[in-house]
Amino acid sequence: MLKVYEVYISEGASSEDILSEEVIKETMAQIMTDDEAAAVGFQGVAPDPDGRDRRWVAVAPRDARFIQSRLDSDPEVLGYRTHDVET
Predict the structure, then answer these.
(1) Which residues, given as ranges, of the chain have pLDDT below 50?
(2) CA-CA distance, 34 to 46, in Å (whole number)?
(3) Is 80 exposed, middle or buried (0-12, 13-18, 19+ CB in 10 A)?
(4) What's the confidence (pLDDT) of residue 17?
């Protein structure tokens, strides 16, 4: 199972703005665009109906709280939803 965060980011922010290289390396988090998430097989990935900029962050459940704390403290993150995905 994976924890996948559907992360809405500020206009003009990039994937590099969400998590630091150190956090990505430590947790092996994968940050994806809608197209990348759909390409690796995540079901139901469609463009946001409100046109918001979105990224998908996939992590192992053991790292979910750590990633969530990083998302909560990031000013570029406008909000997120958490999904459990079977692997």
Answers:
(1) none
(2) 7
(3) buried
(4) 78
Q: Which residues are within 8 A (CB) of 6 and not within 5 positions of it... i.e. 6 or more apart?
A: 54, 56, 80, 81, 82, 83
In angstroms, the Cα distances linking 37 to 20, 22, 29, 69, 74 are 20, 22, 13, 22, 22
Confidence at residue 9, expressed as pLDDT on a 0 to 100 scale:
92
CB 3 within 8 A of CB 84: yes
With beta carbons less than 8 A apart as the criterion, state whether 34 and 45 touch. yes
Sheet strands (E) in the chain: 2-9, 30-32, 53-59, 77-85
Q: Would you kindly state where each structural domain of the chain is located, as residue ranges? A: 2-85
Is the CB of residue 3 less than 8 Å from the CB of residue 70?
no
Architecture of domain 2-85: 2-Layer Sandwich (3.30)
pLDDT of residue 79: 94
